[in-house]
Design a protein that fits this description.
There is one protein chain. The chain is mostly helical. The chain has ten helices and no strands. Helix 4 (60-73) runs antiparallel to helix 5 and helix 4 packs parallel to helix 9.
Length: 194
């Protein structure tokens, strides 16, 4: 990491660090950075906790597909690792997980997932824009409130991935399935154009 961990963290964030260590076996690398600013850490943790709650209108598998795909697009090693582990827990199709980086060329994704992944990429890739068609495609499954929540999830994951990538936060070995682009032999944009 480009910024080292502190020797001592505020008493206000020690409960969050303890919970991470208990749940994951280690404190998550980004927490060592967010922990330098306790108010930010609590806000980020609360924001993601709300988006990933059980009562979310977005299914756990879709939430994880969104988080991993945004992580891949931002080339965030930590995010792909941590979100990939969660996706592996939630999704019973290993082939789908492995194919996510090249979902456009895979039969493992249904119409809803394709509409959402198209939206995710339009929100995440610089130079692309969300279109009315993309929104109307998603509205087959989500009302306006759920669409706002989906958009917040994509936005949050972009914030997280860009934060981690800028500060070179490494993976922690959570996910053993190859889901980073390039891990699997799959068609690339160049090879599919030929």
């Amino acid at each position: 990491m480009r910024i080292p961990a502190k020797k001592q963290y505020s008493i206000f964030i020690k409960p969050l660090l303890w919970l991470q260590k208990r749940h994951y076996g280690n404190v998550l690398n980004p927490a060592l950075l967010w922990g330098r600013r306790p108010a930010l850490f609590w806000l980020v943790a609360g924001f993601f906790g709300y988006l990933d709650r059980k009562s979310s209108p977005i299914t756990p598998v879709i939430r994880s597909l969104v988080c991993v795909r945004v992580s891949q697009l931002n080339d965030c090693a930590f995010c792909v690792d941590a979100n990939g582990m969660k996706l592996a827990e939630r999704c019973d199709c290993v082939e789908k997980i492995k194919a996510l980086a090249n979902w456009q060329h895979s039969e493992h994704f249904d119409e809803q997932e394709r509409a959402i992944l198209t939206y995710v990429e339009a929100m995440t890739i610089t130079g692309q824009k969300v279109t009315e068609t993309m929104l109307s495609d998603i509205q087959k499954w989500y009302d306006a409130d759920a669409l706002v929540e989906l958009t917040a999830l994509v936005s949050f994951q972009n914030l997280s991935a860009k934060f981690n990538t800028a500060l070179d936060v490494p993976e922690q070995g959570f996910c053993s399935i190859p889901i980073q682009p390039g891990d699997e032999e799959a068609p690339t944009a160049e090879s599919s154009d030929k």
